[in-house]
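JOB MANIFEST
job_type = single_chain_structure
chain_count = 1
residues = 204
[input]
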Amino acid sequence: MLRLALASFIVLAGCSGGSKTAAPAGAPSTVAPSAAAQTTAELSPALMPLAWWLGDWDADDGDGSEHWVAAAGAIYGVSLHGRTFEVMVIDDGDGPGRPDGVLRFFAMPNGARSVEFRQRTLGEHAATFANDEHDFPKTITYQLAPERSRLDAVLGGGKEIAYRFKRGTRVAAPELEAADLAFAVDIGRRGVDGWVAAFDPRAG
């Protein structure tokens, strides 16, 4: 999968300046049926059971959020909390070939090198990924609450850290989306030359 290129997209999408409107407590998902169909069309069959994970989620402590989208057969997420960020990718197999049936969760906290967690359990509205060799966390669990308006994330392994989210909504950023799509088309046409052309000449 094009994990790195699309991870760049998700950082931009998560950091866009769109205004935020909180959904009423207990309100159902604000995703329109046509948008939901388009979203699930982006998922591979192996990742379809995680469609409940997608969307915008605001932390209960008011100091963070997570944003999850489906694109090109994978799930991409960005977490913003205080002064920290994390890019996450959920992929359906090892490499660009056919899925091998084991989902993988790649975590890149604050831009660090990615750490891979492999599927341990997968339920109707819950999923746990594990890496017993990692210092912390060793497990990452996400679970959707029965009313579907809350999302819980738990990091485990020696200690436990839990995050609770409520469903949020965000105004679309069509100019940013158009720029990102043009960027993707240019890279598809010109490869690395298209990637380099997008950088400011004075930037590093």
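[summary]
The chain has one domain: 3-188.
The helical segments are 3-15, 33-41, 174-190, 192-197.
exit_status = 0
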